[in-house]
Amino acid sequence: MQKSKEVFIGGNHTKCFECVTKMDQFFLKFKNGKWYLDNIKE
Fold this sequence. Notes:
This protein is mostly beta strands. It has strands at about 5-10, 15-20, 25-30, 35-40.
């Protein structure tokens, strides 16, 4: 991974991290004690 940064904390206590690699950009979200991978920023 090239870099990551916390993008936001949603009203439903979702933490979202923007992750950037040489090949792609995606969002890693932590909600209800679980991690989710997404390509869309909410």
